[in-house]
Amino acid sequence: MSLIEKTQPIQTPYSQLTSLSADYIREKMELFLSEDKSNEDITTFTTISEKVKMKAKIITEEDCVVAGISFLKSCFPDEITVEEKIKDGQYAQKGEVLATCMGSARTILSRERVILNLLQRLCGIATLTRKYAEIGNGFNCKILDTRKMTPGLRMFEKYAVAVGGGFNHRLDLKSAVLIKDNHLLASGGVKPALKNISQLNGSVPIELEVDRLDQLREGLEYEINGFLLDNMTPDEIVQAIDFVKNNSMNNVFLEASGGITLETLKEYAATGIEAISVGALTTSAKNINLKMEFNKVSE
Questions:
Q1: pLDDT of residue 5
Q2: Virtual torsion, Cα 198, 202, 208, 213, nearest 10 deg
Q3: pLDDT digits (tens, 9 = 90+) for 48-90
Q4: Among 14-18, 72-76, 238-242, 272-276, which is the least confidently predicted range?
Q5: Which of 10, 24, 64, 90 is the most buried (most CB within 10 A)?
Q6: Contact criterion met (CB below 8 Å) for 122 and 159
Q7: How far apart are CA 26 and CA 74, in angstroms?
Q8: 28 an active-site residue?
């Protein structure tokens, strides 16, 4: 089964990852649980009878944008009943119940920490992304993530960005070409880096990172889908946008990057840039505090 069940068609170097397959989630959960030795939880298995059933409420202790609740059914075996109370992408206020889980106390308790760790991380990313996206939306500017992801959690984190209102810039190194400064250094410049570009036959989007207008001029000689304007000032970005409009007949995608923060985002978005990529969506996201509250159901 495909890792990604549903994405928007890639017309540019970005897309939105809107769901993950159940098989993928189960496979990753097995790895996470194995690391925690969930199947050898000596505390739970020596103190609680296998006949005990409990109901657990997942509660947020902070206001947040919810992400990851849709994964819960795939985080437990089928005999655990899961009920989603608040959907991914929705706001939840402090004290609200996000979901309930009911079944074997042993099963739920031995998975509690791993599941909460994942959900806290995803809710944190979605909450921060929403703050950026709300500013960007006011200028019709998309907020993109980067490849600054936690190893092993990439697709979960990209999903959290998407439900937070952001977009995913390349799911992996295979999904698009992004020629950056080190590629230019190693290849000898823009023209040597782009000389074999025709071999791709338009199979993937092609983007070139530039920090000078002369690099834009060189790049426009080739069939490039877009440019990443790196570490340019807002005034330089306006100049770059005008330059591309005046020197290209094609619809060229332009994005900005380079340390753009919530405090400076409005100034950059107001330039008319189509998108802004922000590594802080994942590198600076603070986990949202979540907890499980338990009630014994039967024995």
A1: 39
A2: 80
A3: 999 999 999 999 999 999 999 999 999 999 999 999 999 999 9
A4: 14-18
A5: 64
A6: yes
A7: 6
A8: no
In the set 85, 131, 180, 217, the catalytic residue is 180
Q: Which of 112, 157, 230, 255 is catalytic?
A: 230
Class level of CATH domain 134-283? alpha beta
pLDDT digits (tens, 9 = 90+) for 277-291: 999 999 999 999 999
Among 148, 154, 218, 274, the active-site one is 148
| Euclidean distance between CA atoms 206 and 219, whole angstroms | 11
- Sequence-ordered list of residues with C-beta below 8 angstroms from that of 147, at least 6 positions apart, any chain: 169, 170
CATH fold of 19-125+286-298:
Aldehyde Oxidoreductase; domain 3 (3.90.1170)
Residue from 113, 191, 212, 296 carrying the catalytic annotation? 113
Domain boundaries in the chain?
Answer: 19-125+286-298, 134-283
Structure confidence by residue, pLDDT tens digits, 86-116: 999 999 999 999 999 999 999 999 999 999 9
Helix (H, G, I), strand (E, B) or coil at 2: coil
Q: Which residue carries 């199947």 as its tokens?
A: 39
Active site residue 78: no
- Residue 87 catalytic? no
Q: What is the DSSP string of 20-81?
A: E-HHHHHHHHHHHHHHTTGGG-HHHHHHS-TT-EEEEEEEESS-EE--SGGGHHHHS-TTSE
209 classed as catalytic = yes
